[in-house]
Specification:
Elements (H helix, E strand, L loop, with lengths): L2 H16 L28 E7 L7 H16 L1 E7 L3 H13 L4 E4 L4 H13 L4 E4 L14 E3 L2 H14 L4 E6 L5 H13 L3 E5 L5 H14 L3 E6 L2 H14 L4 E5 L3 H8 L6 E3 L2 H18 L9 E2 L3 E3 L4 H6 L1
Parallel strand pairs: 1-2, 1-3, 3-4, 4-5, 5-11, 6-7, 6-8, 8-9, 9-10
Antiparallel strand pairs: 10-12
Helix pairs in contact: 2-10, 3-4, 5-6, 7-8
Length: 323
């Protein structure tokens, strides 16, 4: 079975699991969210887990990761401390702060592995169990991390590239919202390996006006563009505005989902999404740390635990909207 064929095999189960997700309304750059130990079903002693991500303020993708982590924390009698910063050096500092607090476990994203490596290794050296999620699939083992929960971003990009080829798409923009993010680069690389009419552009994801103006200018400059492929749901919504502003007929597709993007797929305004199930990533990362502490168990057998990719389009979006 080929790598891309496996994407199709995973789709049904992946979409079914995603239907469990419930987006949290909470957000913010650095926030502590204590797990409600009184509501935890586990009768094991309370433990403290730090979840440290590279989330940018306002990116609703991370609400889903956090919601999954919080649900696992409640079930497992865990106090969850959530912090985030998109800057690699500052995110690494958050990891070190968790080490200094002597937490019982750390779940961390590794979008900027070079910046993160030293402090993640400090955590491992302090005998604090560490698992990775979402980003850093090529680097987690080298840091002594126990498990990884996410998707192969290059494989996901290849799947998107094959779909663009099947749909006979023309020139396609692959929009990267954060320079230096290894996972986003891998997605566009995967697209280009299977679809030879893609072009990368960079936008400043934390600046909505910059995202819209950059995409608009590109669409105005190159009328041959038929598709805009964004790497996050909020950017797909911005790209729609750019298409209208530029008077373009380009179609919009995306990686990742939020509630609004699901409705946009239903309404035919977004063609499809490649989903990695962020809720599942957050849930499994926290639950794996509980299993390690209380059962001596490990998850993944030294290999990544994949939560995607899976396509969501007009054929299966109703299942998710019902949930």
């Amino acid at each position: 079975m080929s790598r891309i064929t496996r994407v199709g095999v995973m789709t049904t189960s992946a979409v079914a699991a995603l239907a469990l997700a419930a987006c949290s309304s909470s957000g913010g750059k650095q926030t502590d969210s204590g797990g409600d130990s009184a509501g935890g079903k586990a009768d094991t002693p309370e433990m403290t887990v730090a979840l440290v991500t590279h989330a940018a303020p306002g990116d609703t993708f991370w609400d889903q990761v956090r919601a999954g982590a919080e649900d696992a924390a409640k079930k497992d009698n865990i106090k969850l401390e959530y912090t985030a910063d998109p800057d690699g050096a500052r995110q690494a500092t958050l990891v070190q702060q968790a080490v200094d607090k002597k937490v019982d476990g750390i779940a961390v994203t590794l979008a900027k592995p070079e910046a993160m490596k030293g402090n993640v290794e400090n955590a491992v050296g302090a005998d604090i169990p560490v698992v990775a999620l979402n980003a850093g699939m090529e680097d987690w083992k080298d840091m002594g991390v126990l498990s990884f929960f996410g998707q192969d971003d290059e494989l996901a990009g290849e799947a998107a590239g094959e779909r663009l080829t099947e749909e006979k798409a023309g020139k396609t923009l692959c929009v990267i919202q954060e320079q230096g993010h290894v996972g986003l680069e891998a997605r566009c690389k995967g697209v280009a390996s299977k679809f030879d009419k893609s072009e990368k552009i960079y936008v400043k994801g934390t600046d909505t006006a910059d995202v819209q103006s950059t995409i608009t200018a590109k669409l105005q400059d190159d009328t041959a563009i038929t598709h805009v492929l964004t790497l996050g749901a909020p950017f797909a919504l911005i790209a729609q505005k750019s298409v209208g502003e530029a008077g373009s007929k380009a179609k919009v597709a995306t990686f990742d989902l939020n509630d609004e993007a699901l409705q946009q797929i239903k309404d035919g305004k977004i063609e499809w999404a490649v989903d990695q199930q962020p809720y599942v990533q957050g849930y499994m990362a926290v639950d794996a740390l509980w299993l390690r502490a209380n059962k001596g168990a490990s998850v993944g057998g030294g290999q990544p635990t994949f939560t995607g990719p899976a396509f969501v389009d007009d054929k299966n979006v109703d299942l998710l909207l019902k949930k």
